[in-house]
Amino acid sequence: MTILPNANRLRSKCSKHLAGWFGGAKPLQSPLQADRCNPDIRAGARIDAAPLRPARCRAQHPRMPRHAFPAAEAATAPNEPGRLSARIFGHGTFEARWYAPQGTDPQTPHTRDEAYVVVRGTGTFFCAGMRTPFGPGDLLWVPAHAEHRFEDFSPDFATWVIFYGPEGGEG
């Protein structure tokens, strides 16, 4: 374990659990955090990346808002009953979901505008009669009620799905 100089002067959220979220070692920032997370770890100590533990962190720190949602964590979330995707986060009209179809994409038009941010994989995106190739990092937008689907996609394909705005779309 390495001790970092001046670590107590820094400010952060629960660094022990952020290490698991971001996949890297993060320093603990205060004795209070060290006591709350693990009394055996001193302030300023670097910890190795741990398995993803967002639920545990939220249970231990209920007032700590969550601002990061790693794709590796989202990929392990189960789909909601009756849905093709897993709900990861929602706030107001904003809803983030994880979608990783296998084989074919059976989705139908939705009642709200949506955007996709492709995390991995390649293929062709069909929307409103047009086809376009896609790959990691691409942003795809779909207006409410538009016919759309992913076609000829690679087996590793996965994407964030963002629903937002009122029913019927903003346009």
CATH class of the largest domain reads Mainly Beta
CATH-level-4 superfamily name of the largest domain: Jelly Rolls
Note the run of SSEs as H and E.
HHHHEEEEEEEE
Low-confidence stretches: 1-54
Quickly give the structural class: alpha+beta
Any overview of this molecule?
The structure is a single chain. The chain has 171 residues and is of the alpha+beta class. It folds into 2 domains: 7-60, no CATH class; 71-164, Jelly Rolls, CATH 2.60.120.10. The protein has helices spanning 15-22, 31-37, 54-60, 71-74; strands spanning 86-91, 94-99, 113-120, 123-127, 130-134, 139-142, 148-151, 158-164. The strands form 2 sheets. Strands 1-2-8-3-6 form a 5-stranded antiparallel β-sheet, with no helix packed on it. The longest helix is centred in the first third of the chain and has 8 residues, at 15-22. It is globular and about 40 Å long. Residues 1-54 have low confidence and may be disordered.
